[in-house]
Structures are given as C-alpha cells and as structure tokens.
Amino acid sequence: MGKREVELILKWTPLAFSFILFLCFLYHSYLRFIYPYDITSADGFVLGFSLDLLKGGPLYTDVKTSLRPNVYPPLYYLLCAPLLRLTGPSFLPGKLISFLSSLGTGLLLYFMLKERTRDLPLTLTLTFSFFSFYYTFFWSTLPRPDMLGLFLSILGICLFQRGRKWLASLSFVLSLLAKQNYISAPVSMFLYLLLNKKYRQFFLQLLSISIVFLSLFLPCLFYFGPELLKNTFLYAGSYQHSFRHYLFYGYVFAVLPLFLLFSDAIFSPRDFFTLYGVTSFLVMLWLLFNPGSASNYFLEPTCAFILAATNSPILKKRNSLTYVLLLIQLILSPGGGVLDWPWGNIQYLNSFYENLKVDERIMEMVDAFNGSIMSECSGFLLFAGLDPSPDIWKLYTLKEELNLGPSIEKYCLSFDRVISFWDLPLLPECLKGFSLKAKMQRRNFPSVRYGEDEYFFVEIYEKG
After folding, report:
1. Rounded-to-integer distance, Cα 256 and Cα 254, Å
2. Rounded to an integer, what distance in angstroms lies between the CA atom of residue 336 and that of residue 399?
3. Is 382 in the same domain as 344?
4. CA–CA separation, 462 vs 464, rounded Å?
5. Which of 296, 318, 349 is the last residue of a domain?
C-alpha cells in the first residue's frame, strides 16, 4: 500500500466512523422521542411548569410557601407551552425543542468550521464528532433547556463573526433567558474586542446587548414578578459548595484529544475561538462547585474546544497524526471516557427502555390509586391529571438555608402515598409517618452524578 493510499485511509476513516456514530445518535434520539415516561427526575417538574404557563398559572412562586423552586428562565417554557396545546401533557414538545437545537448547533459548527479549515472531510469529521460525545447523546433529547441555550449561544457567536452585532446581542440574551449559565460566549466576545483594542466596537456591542437585555428582561420581570429573580438567580445556585472532581476527571479524559489539539494551538488574542475555549472551560470549573452539577455543563466547552482546536498547527499541516488523534477521540467519545467501553455504552445509553414495563406498572398504580400521591418523577402524576411534585434535589440544596424542613414534612404528610426514585432519601422529612410497602427494580440511566450502579429500586411508601 502506497503513501497516497495510507493518507486517504487516515483521512476518510475518522469521517466514516464519526458518521456511523451520528447515525447512532439519531437512533438514540428516536428511542427517546417514543419513550413516554420520565427518564430523569427533572423531566416532570419542567413539564409541570410548562403546563402551568399554558393554563395561566404562575411560573415563579415563593419557595418558602409553595415548595416549588423553578431555577430555569422563562424562554424554554414560552416555547414549549404552545406546543403542549397541541399534544396535551407530553414530553414530546420539550424533546423536540432540544433535538432541533442540537441539530442546529451542529449545523452552525459546520459552517464555522468550514470557514476555518477549508477542508470538507475534516469539517465534517469535527462536526459529527460533536454528536458522538456522551454529553450530546445524553442531553440532546431531554425535555430540558440546555440544548436550546447552547444553540442560541453558538448562534450569537456565528452572527458576531459576521458583523451582525444587534442580532448577535439578541441571540446572546435569548440564550441567557433559556439557561442562565450561558455567559461564556458574550464574555469571550468582549474580551476579544478589548484585547484587540477594538474599543469603539466594544462600546457599541455593549450598548446593543444592554438595550436588548433590558428590552427583554424587564417585560419578563414585570410579567412574572420579582420571584423570577429569586428563583433563577438566588435559588439556582447552591449553598453547599464543593468541587465535583469526578465530573471534572471524566470530562478531561473524554476530550483529551481535543485538549491535546487545543494546547498545541498558538494562543492569540486575535483568535476568538481560543478565548472562547479558555473562557467556557473556566466557567465550567466554576459551575462544578454546585452540588447539582451534571454533565450538561460540558456541552459549551466541548463546542468551544472543537472550534478552537482548528487553530492547531497539527491540523493545519494535515499530518496523519491529526487523523489518528481524531479517530481515538471518536472511539472514546460515545462513553465520554466515563462509562466502560464505547459500543456497550451506546447500548447502556439506550438501556432506559428496559424500564418500560416498570414505568407502565407505576403509571397504572398512579391511575388506580384513589388517594393522593407524591411522585419524585412528576410525569406520572401529570399524565394522570394530578399536580406535579416539587424538584426534590433543589429542595435538598435549599432546605437548610431557607429552613424548609418543617414545611417539607407537612407537605409530604398531606399525601397518602409517596413514590421515591433517586433523590427523595436526601430529604428524610418526606418519609416521616410513612412505611415502605413495595419495591420495583429499575435500570439506572448513565449519569455520573448518580454513580455507575446499573440498577436501583423505586420504593413505594404509604402513610401509617
């Protein structure tokens, strides 16, 4: 085999492999779409707030009295609620928003990478690599606002590079109104303008983003009330700060080839994506002090590193080492370097389907029970026409600071049955006066926050 043939194999093999993994991503997304029940505990309470908005109810309330912290800004709910008018109580609208946002993010990456590399196979390989990461697999079709915020943040960068400062400002503000942790892109933009001494453009961009922010945020504050600020800024943080080192090590290992390419790049204030990579990584480190941290915080730095890595001399020289590194990255990425071996992890990521019969039994139990029920996964309650339960994890992080223990105990005692999944044991107040009646084994979903146990038990408690 000649040198030319070897170069072609090294050039096209990563692209073929990344495309296969993109097809796996689409298949996994399809399975998520048709799965009717809660995959994570947050799915239900997010759906509950969307239904509240549809019915004209409040999105943000006083946590001390309602016990319903809502830490997400309103944009996701504003998009989801009209779709729920068509589907009724369903996770489908939220999943659709996240899935389309993930595809939109990939499309934006493709256009920006194409301008940077001017090499179609490399551009496609890097674009598809975004979809092969565990983090994209896991978050892209969850009914949560993370992918929507990411798409709007990357869109803002794309518009800024094309000189559309007002549209870029609009996109950045909308990303913050989707998920408030997406601050890396606008911060990187202002750093870039300052370091390159583009002071006039800096002040114009600052003016535009200030006007857009006030034009959108003030009406939201007026409509939703001051509890919007408390819920999304004060309660979204945590009062028990400790660094989530296991999440950090998993992420570093997962994106190690990107780190190698990024560290090989020549740092220059003229390169916006280098600044974006550093800024998003530092913001991620800061967010990992929150005990509620999960791998969704890794989505933006992953995109930033993919973009910044194209400034690496290795890529510019088109060495065979480039494609070997990319191939290693793509082999490791489905499991995120966290969960066992790649192909087993794709099966593991889809393993929530093993829970279908268990979830059907839970749904039948909720429908048939004559008394009142609190379920940590609120989707079952919403599908039965009942009110959702609060976010147990967030209540746990707020309990000590707001002295919520007595209120939580009183709230739970108003129910006849409690269904516990993951987090409820963190609040022993919820189970006072209840006794365990039944257990059902359920397959765990692959999130490093919950550890790597394959199975756990759904526990059913009844009063007395």
Report:
1. 6
2. 33
3. no
4. 6
5. 349
